[in-house]
Amino acid sequence: MAQDFLLSLPILVATLWIVLLIVCEAAFQRHLLTKYLSLIGFVGVAAATVYVFPQQGFAFSEMIRAGAVQHFANFIFLLAGVIVTLTSDRYLEEEKIWFGEYYIIMFISVLGMMLMASAANMTVLFIGLETMSIALYVLAGLMRRDKRSSEAAMKYFLLGSFASGFFLYGIALIYGATGEMALHRVADVLQLRGASPLFWIGLSLLMLGLFFKISAVPFHQWTPDVYQGSPTPAAAFMSTGAKAAAFAAIISVIGNFSVQLQGNLNWSVAVSVVAVATMIVGNVAALAQEQLKRMLAYSSIAHAGYMLVGIAAGGAEGFSAVIYYTLIYTLMNVGAFSVVALLESEGLGATYSDCTGIFKDSPLLAGAMAIFMLSLAGLPPFGGFIAKYKVFAAAVSAGMAWLAVVGVLASAVSAYYYLRVIVAMFMQEKNQPLKLPMTSSSLTLAVVALAVLLLGIFPTEVLKLTAKAIELGFAP
Fold first, then answer.
1. Euclidean distance between CA atoms 267 and 272, whole angstroms
2. Which one of 198, 283, 322, 368 has the fewest beta carbons within 10 angstroms of its own beta carbon?
3. Closest Cα partner for 160 from 200, 132, 121?
4. If 0-12 CB within 10 Å is exposed, 13-18 middle and 19+ buried, where does residue 22 land?
5. pTM
């Protein structure tokens, strides 16, 4: 029992801290206090993760699995939560939605992400998915007076519930085919009996639910509308944390079923087709956007396609590349959305034209946004370049060079709409000067931009860590 509590310590700390946040908010109703308590909670969960990082194994009757992959994923979720929390204040105050429950709901969503990454049993995987999703539905509709926010929440809820239904039905079919709910037990049964058609149908439906969460084509239609209508900090969080959690779950499922999936041509072709469609649709649609939030929404779809290249490649190289990609993507995409949130908090519409002249009035903010855009485009020496290189290299190593070529071409297309932001900021002038005061949010974004740059110049240690995490992640 003591070992169970030790292995699941980060999840337990997060759960207890959520209870504390709810009590404090109900008792004091001081949103600033709730914010700082949330930050302390994120740090506490991170400390608990560091403490148990060397540990690995199953907990609570093999419902939870702790290991390097899960711990690394927890850091990504916590990082997204911390950055969004630090950069939200001005936007929330301007939109009159600076409520303490905003931070509590975000913390609950992080708990759901942690459960998804640590799930050894499909029941826990579903509980984590729903915990994360319901919290995100609420965040999407937080601007109660804005019809677009209500529409975003309703659309996300309805489509998300529909995808969850497929996900749950897939779990039921896998259980029917194997008689087991634990992922590694299912894998053992498949090795003894082989994979039946019922199992393959169930796995397809389960993956459909996860593909919805990463906005993979053709399950992507909700993304631009939901991101556009949601509070911008909430869009930043759901575009990174939720995507990272879904990819962690995908890696967990595929890692356990690797014997059945390895060399399966139909599986490889199916994931490759989805990856190609996602990269092409995301990038082509982003070219036509004028609103920065919609552009970033389609950009997030395209990046899901890049990460799916690593999933299609499979193996330790492909999975470790995807984990590294989720880390870099979280930093640069949260940063880009946070810059948009700052623009909106100053009364700007956050279109390309609203970016003009930012460098003259706020060099720090413009420089940070330039780094995020260049990294999203995959240009050296930024972290996004290394991330794309690793997933494409994994595809080449797996004998799927054509998939890497499609990825490179799609990435080249994306350079247009990313560089368009930089041109507006640095090379065009606005008729009236902007008022962009230096804030703590600007300093936070500068630190995030520096991290994106350093992870592009010195990626070796982090890449070694992700490779080691995958190596240990599915050890018995």
1. 9
2. 198
3. 132
4. middle
5. 0.93
Instruction: Give the largest CA-CA distance in the chain.
Output: 72
Q: Where is pLDDT greater, at 294 or 255?
A: 294
The pLDDT value given to residue 473: 62
The structure tokens 């389609």 sit at 298
| Residues 406, 409, 410: CA angle, nearest 5 degrees | 85
Report the Cα 366 to chain-centroid distance in Å.
Answer: 24
Angle (nearest 5°) at CA 20 between 7 and 30: 145
Residue 298 identity (one-letter amino acid): Y
3-state class (DSSP) for residue 301 = helix
Instruction: Tell me the C-alpha distance between 444 and 69, whole Å.
Output: 27
- Angle formed at CA 264 by CA 263 and CA 269, multiple of 5 degrees: 110
Going through 60-172 in order, the beta strands assigned E by DSSP cover 64-66
What tens digit of pLDDT does each residue of 101-152 get? 889 999 999 999 999 999 889 999 999 999 999 999 999 988 888 788 888 8
H runs (alpha helix) in 257-382: 258-261, 265-287, 292-313, 315-345, 358-361, 363-377
**Cα–Cα dist 366/355, whole Å:** 9
Q: Which residue is listed with tokens 């990294």?
A: 375
Return d(Cα 269, Cα 276) in angstroms, integer.
Answer: 10
Q: Are 142 and 109 in contact (CB under 8 A)?
A: no
Report pLDDT digits (tens) over 354-405.
Answer: 778 788 878 888 899 999 999 999 898 999 999 999 999 999 998 889 999 9
Residue 119 pairs in a beta bridge with 64
